[in-house]
Amino acid sequence: MKNYHPLIFHNSLLLIAFSLPFSMFFNIQWNSIFIVILLLNWVIEGGFKEKMSKIRPQMDIFLLFITLYWVNSIGLLYTTEWNDAFHEITTKLSLFIFPVVFLGNLHEITAKHQKNIFLAFISAVFIACLFTFSQGFEFSSDTLSGILVIKKTSLLHRPYLAMYVILGVFMLLYLLLRSQNSVEERILSLLAILFLAFFITLKATTAFIAFLVAFTFVLLTWILHRNQLIAGLITFILVINVLFFSYPFDNFLQQISRIDYIDAHMDNPNIDKQANPRAKIWECAWGVINASSTTLWLGVGTGNAQKVLNQCYEEKKLALAKDYNLNAHNEYLQMWLRQGIIGLVVFLLNLLVPLLIAINQRNYLLIVFITIIAVCSFSETLLSRQAGTVFYAFFNALLYFYFLPEKDRT
After folding, report:
1. Once rounded to an integer, what is the mean pLDDT over residues 87-100?
2. For the ranges 136-140, 299-303, 404-408, which has the lowest average pLDDT?
3. Per-residue pLDDT tens for 330-346?
4. More confident: 198 or 241
């Protein structure tokens, strides 16, 4: 059986990457199944002394990563809504599992393995986009009339799909720059163009900002390390012009603050989708956080966030927000609401520390990835959904532990 452990390990990683957009396909949590297989293989394999020896040199970053999970567990001490708390803790298990399995790993992840993981993810995102637009591109011309089509055909929440597409674009560019095969280069180039077309058509405004910020970060890092100011500026101007001419900027700020009540539209297509925008929900979240020094520092507990938000929605007559149990739609506020300023600081450190290291070491994909997470967290509670938590935990561990030079990981 020992010879099968590397095979199970590598294939599990491929299946996890591929299943991300299909996490609830046929109402089966495929993603969770493959994570369990990966973890069981890691446990049955044994060799824990050797695994600990691999973790020990990077104990500081390892502890930082898993603290993001344990700070949520501490919130169980003062929660009253145990069903919600259990959901939160199980959803976030990957925040603990992936740092342990990736760092305490006995099998090499080579450049070929990394490429296969990227291709598995890119293939899955491409299939998800095809499903989303299988009934045409009505959504691109009229968001309101096309919203029901997207709901029926999409395998993933629209902002999450846009987030996946962004990472897919940069992965394709990464593979393209390293390809030495002309046929492969043409395929990768075509896919990159298609992904950009899908991304623009999705009209996910926060994801668009994330793309611009990530692109700017990567370009600035490249300019600083390569001393290519003129070439960098020309590239920046060209890309920005293309994006700004192709992206619909009507009511830009309103697009950021609105929430598309897709489920409500399914029940009543005439409902006003602009009602109860994010700004009002953010007001509720901040009001609860700022209510006392206890909630400011410790939050309301891991399972109590939705309960206190619904109470505020009722007081402010935000009927749709209450009926559909909307969370804070902002990961920073949601983390602060649940775990207080301590939890918020832990989350910020998990973004800032790897980002600074990635910039210093020219780890461009990690720069892109953390930027996507940081920006999209302003309008989505990424760590409250399986599609967001696994996406973050998986690629954060992979890109940090296996895309830095060996001498800089100790």
Report:
1. 94
2. 404-408
3. 999 999 999 999 999 99
4. 198
In the chain, where the domains are located: 1-46, 50-259+327-408
Range of weakest confidence among 132-136, 268-272, 366-370: 268-272
- Predicted pLDDT of residue 351: 97
First vs last C-alpha separation in the chain: 32
Q: How far is CA 94 from CA 31, 86, 395, in A?
A: 11, 14, 11
